């Protein structure tokens, strides 16, 4: 029963969209009607500037970290920590309180991964920086690094169950970015 409450609480935590709070509180605007309409750090940054981007990024990252840290505190293992992070991302990407129109989950993913396991996070960041140095695209480098997270987990011998859970985690983030990936692919093919 505790596990059920943990996962439900993590999903509801994910429903707290930092972008919506910041845009409504400080700019008196509804972020769903501004820019791309996405309630995430990138859109907030484009519409309201760097300070709003940083505040949104950290606000959403804290959600991911809190869910994982709560799971650690309750004594659950690494697999459940990843499941709690998945629940937060589901709440952020598909928030019931905002008609399932949420962000894309990158900030919450990063915060959760940092709280989950420092070596995994460090390798993830290293891969991202290396890829960005060659690709020069935050989106492609970031999503590529996210795809590699399950392999990192496997290479660090964190267990098969954790590997499977991180496969679902990475897939969820990729699914949330399907439109970005499609647009990038179309541009490279000359279709847009």
TrEMBL record:
SMART domains: G3P_acyltransf. Its main location: membrane. It catalyses: an acyl phosphate + sn-glycerol 3-phosphate = a 1-acyl-sn-glycero-3-phosphate + phosphate. Pathway: Lipid metabolism; phospholipid metabolism. GO terms for molecular function: acyl-phosphate glycerol-3-phosphate acyltransferase activity. Keywords: Acyltransferase, Cell membrane, Lipid biosynthesis, Lipid metabolism, Membrane, Phospholipid biosynthesis, Phospholipid metabolism, Transferase, Transmembrane, Transmembrane helix. GO terms for biological process: phospholipid biosynthetic process. It is found in: Cell membrane. It is a multi-pass membrane protein. Catalyzes the transfer of an acyl group from acyl-phosphate (acyl-PO(4)) to glycerol-3-phosphate (G3P) to form lysophosphatidic acid (LPA). This enzyme utilizes acyl-phosphate as fatty acyl donor, but not acyl-CoA or acyl-ACP. This is Glycerol-3-phosphate acyltransferase. It comes from Sporosarcina limicola.
């Amino acid at each position: 029963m505790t596990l059920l409450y943990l996962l439900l609480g993590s999903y509801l935590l994910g429903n707290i969209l930092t972008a919506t709070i910041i845009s409504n509180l400080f700019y008196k605007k509804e972020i769903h009607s501004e820019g791309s309409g996405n309630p995430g750090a990138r859109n907030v940054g484009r519409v309201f500037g760097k300070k709003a981007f940083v505040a949104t990024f950290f606000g959403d990252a804290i959600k991911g970290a809190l869910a994982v840290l709560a799971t650690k505190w309750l004594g659950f293992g690494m697999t459940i920590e990843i499941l709690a992070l998945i629940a937060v991302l589901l709440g952020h990407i598909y928030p019931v309180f905002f008609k399932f129109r949420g962000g894309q989950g990158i900030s919450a993913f990063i915060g959760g991964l940092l709280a989950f396991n420092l070596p995994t996070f460090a390798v993830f960041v290293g891969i991202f920086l290396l890829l960005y140095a060659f690709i020069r695209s935050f989106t492609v480098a970031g999503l590529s690094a996210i795809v590699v997270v399950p392999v990192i987990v496997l290479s660090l011998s964190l267990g098969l169950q954790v590997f499977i859970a991180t496969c679902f985690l990475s897939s969820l983030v990729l699914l949330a970015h399907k439109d970005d990936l499609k647009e990038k692919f179309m541009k490279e093919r000359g279709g847009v």
